[in-house]
Write a structure and sequence with these properties.
Elements: E1 2-5, H1 11-14, H2 16-25, E2 27-32, E3 35-43, E4 49-54, E5 71-76, H3 91-105, E6 110-117, H4 125-139, E7 145-150, H5 155-159, H6 161-164, H7 171-187, E8 191-194, E9 207-208, H8 214-221, E10 240-241, H9 261-270, E11 287-291
Parallel strand pairs: 1-4, 1-10, 3-11, 4-5, 5-6, 6-7, 7-8, 8-9
Antiparallel strand pairs: 2-3
Helix pairs in contact: 4-7
Amino acid sequence: MILNISSRTDILAFYSKWFIKRLEAGYVDVRNPFNEKLVSRIYFKDVEAIMFCTKNPLPILDYLPKIKKPIVFHVTITPYKKDIEPNVPPKGLIIEGVKKLSKILGKENVVVRYDPIFISDKYNIEYHKKAFNNLCMLLNGYIDKIIVSFIDDYKNVRKNNNVLRIKPFTEDIYKEIGLNFSKSAKENNITVQTCAEKRDLTEYGFIKGECLSKTLAYQLTGKTKFKKWQERDCECVQMVDIGAYNTCLHLCKYCYANFDETKVKENKRKHDVNASMLIGHLSDEDIVKIRTK
């Protein structure tokens, strides 16, 4: 089993102490987001590797020696300001965190995500070209890969479009991103990749790949057979997420995992660092099943 920590929330940014306590306890309980009475219990002895996904790896850095599993990091760094990402720390601090991770884990195990891209009057194509080039220069020698994605039409995106003010993508925009991003990445010894994007940018030098490929999964676990995500249009290896929706305090205006800010604050109040699950506690009505794969 490979854990994803987490696509549903930023556990490392806001709940690192809870995660380490679960690691020390030997298991974690995960409530099914589509049937709240169903709970999966995952024992860490059954975990073969972990992918950490975060906008802020800094809180976990001191705990890394406690994690006795193969790990890979995906760290999202975007160029947006507080109007779009109200509670994300200054990007310079995150970049320094990526450098520290690279020194500890090796650059092959640290991936940066420039994710998602949207175009507006404020965040126009020239803004993105400059931001991406600066990011590549700052991370030259510290990472091998940047994964790029484009904004999707999520409920939260539509709700916040008065702030986002998204402009439609055109072929000229895709071409300009493709050519310029590829050039910046190549000049700084980095590859630039998409995963499960409708627009193929390989003609401009992008790689079309996976967030977690079978090759990387083999390198992490030594296993050769893996299930793929059934519900996703990609070849990524299936992972098990231990997070919960509507719990991320970054409150990014484009986020798919948060769609009710009132619920986010309510859930944060329900968080108990000593509980077996991220939000709340087990009840007598819950059905707990052990998950091994």
